[in-house]
Write a structure and sequence with these properties.
Helix 5 crosses helix 8. The protein is mainly alpha-helical and 318 residues long.
Amino acid sequence: MWLYFRRRMLTTIPVLLGVSLAIFLMLHLLPGDPVLMMLTEHRGGAAPTVTGNITQEMYDNMRRELGLDRPLPVQFGNFLIKAVQGDLGESFRGGQPVVDLLRKNLPHTVILALCGLVVALFLGLFLGILAALNRGRWLDGLTMTFAVVGVSMPSFWLGIMLLLIFALYLRILPAVGMAGDLRSLVLPSLALGISASAILARLARSSMVEVLQQDYVRTARAKGLRERFVVLKHALKNSLIPVLTVAGLQFGGLLSGAVVVEVVFGRPGIGQIVVNAVLEKDFPVVQGMILFAAFTYVLANLLVDLSYGWLDPRVRYS
């Protein structure tokens, strides 16, 4: 297992390198000049130019201070060298290290993503098992209808609907921000988790239906074991492998979806920071945040792969 772990960690290097290169090129291809935006405090409208109170000398000096006067390959190389050392650069706007921004705001985003994952796993497994045990009946059709509708709903739209119903009309849950208790996590977690739960429900149903037809399940039933014991002890554990695989893939999606949900619900986290950084072309912040999110995504999938050995002792790592 340790050999497999080391090999997988080595394969993350080209993945992270590719992600870094892609986001670096996309940021520099976007229209707008971060130096002019900073000099004029531009927030919208026509693109500012080096005229009036902004002299060419001021413009050149700031580009030199930010390191934007160097060729793009040199800028990308410097970013990689610093990233390997744990330095993701400093924000163009406030001069604050990106690592400090991550350390301060990332816990809120991770907590929200984990809560969304818990909602997705709970609803997905419950509905998937319920559909599998009632295969071909009306409960099966109802849960699969929910799955189709759930997949079709974007998290930001669902978040707005939850705000209107539970915060505005019923007034039983806080609308935005941090309420100081767990109630403030309910609506954002549901907005994140429902769409993911719909995908997991369909997968859990198909996996459970296949496992329930295996010979060892029939043998367990023939021995007179209770149906609840057969499902939870024998069938569920062996049907979890494909579900956990997709759940691990979805965790990265939940992290990225949390960015949008945080903006909708006005929660602290990296969501508003990334949105502002993109609008203001704050290259170090965007590059650092996305690179860290990519690493988290790869690490989550590795942990899921390592969990296969616990779920199924027959799995061998090579």
